[in-house]
Amino acid sequence: MSTPRFSDISIRFFDTRQRDTLQLETRDEGKVSIYACGPTVYDHPHLGHGRTAFTYDMIRRFLRYVGYDVTLASNITDIEDKIIRRAHEEGVSETEITTRYEKSYRDQLDSLGIERPDHVPHATEYVPEMQELITRLMDKGVAYQTSTGVYFSVPDYKEYGELSGRTLDELLQSAGARVDVDDEKQSPLDFALWKFAKPDEPFWESPWGQGRPGWHIECSAMCVGILGQGFDIHGGGSDLVFPHHENEIAQSVGAGDVFARYWIHSAMLNISGEKMSKSLGNFITLSDAISQHGPRALRLFMIQTHYRAQMEISDDSLAAAKSALDRLDTFARRCSQLGIAANEVPIDEDIQKRFIQLMANDFGAPQALAILFEALREANTAMDIEDFDRVASLYATIVELAEVLGIDLEAPKKQTSVDAIWVEEQIALREQARSSKDFAHSDSIRDALKNVGVVIEDTKDGTTWHVEPGHSE
Q1: What average pLDDT score do residues 317-331 get?
Q2: Rounded to whole angstroms, what are the CA distances from 470 to 50, 312, 336?
Q3: pLDDT digits (tens, 9 = 90+) for 246-294
Q4: What is d(CA 273, CA 312) in angstroms, rounded to the nearest whole number?
Q5: What percentage of residues in the chain have a pLDDT greater than 90?
Q6: Residue 136: helix, strand or coil by DSSP?
Q7: Whole-angstrom Cα distance, residue 419 to residue 47?
Q8: Among 39, 41, 44, 43, which Cα is nearest to 108's?
Q9: Which residues contact 75 (CB under 8 A, 6 or more apart)?
């Protein structure tokens, strides 16, 4: 096969700040630096976390495939109000909370085939850098101190609202509904850079007093600290455009930093036509979705929706993704049975070229996936007429390009490790459901465990479980 190279390919994508499709021009030739906002680890990850992480995994895989040297950083917010509140509720340390839920997050992403970032900065590791950034803002006169903390003066940053496409007047009109009232703040839009500690809260020493960083300053310090001035792409879910990313730009540029060249955001998701929300009772954890549908089918489902389009989740759509995956796996098994290997013949360069062109157009994974299924239909026809040379070429092509999308076809029956802690949690939830005589929920948990190869048995001494042969524990 011919090796694709970045110098031969024009990659264009939608930039949130410019509200236009731009051509990728990197800071350093042949290299791409990406910072994707990670989670605040105070609870198990939900489907939205999975969708966001998948988006930047997909982008990273493609850029690497066409020859770029990609550096991806994605943070962990391990100090924040929600973490402190959860720790107080459970009577444990903040570190215990963050360690538990970071592991849960990593385990679920691993099962989805999401490669780990090159850098995983934790907010608590970068407090000195945050303090240095705040000091620069104070020195430039765009930050001030009150009795509750240090705040950024939004009206002093004239470009505020540029990322989200809102004016200061528009933001001020809506501020009352979403901003805590603080009479000491110079403007309702001003946001905290440093929060003074309350009793029984974790704190760091600082020039302004004992406290902890605000959420927004954390990412500004980490992304520039790791990727340097003027790094290429900053991303996250579309829910972070305002205020988080808007505030990042304001404080970083306000301090004199050269910030991100481009901004990419992945869209949110709906479940059966409604926005996913705990209050609506349709909130789905990532582990439950993986258990019910399988990690590979869930990833294929994510590929089928463009990253900037709202993802609509329903039982029918996930079943369709599972069916599509089964077609790929069936073909891979037939090739294996015939002794056809994916690495023994050149791939079809015409199909590869079309695939790359579609991915290079705003990372069009759904269209690129359609190319794979076109090749699959042709391959099945060639197999029926025993044109095995063509089958071999198409099989090699499908396997290689599916891997670019993060779908492994060479070992379709390979299973990821079963998380024993998660299994025990599911069994405990099943016991609660049985005690409440909610047998439908109890049965659904048993079925979800079975889908990942976990068999449970109820005995007089309690419930036991084991992993079916062919699965790994």
Answers
A1: 92
A2: 26, 33, 18
A3: 999 999 999 999 999 999 999 998 887 777 766 566 778 898 888 888 8
A4: 7
A5: 71
A6: helix
A7: 18
A8: 44
A9: 35, 37, 38, 120, 121, 122, 123, 218, 219, 222, 223
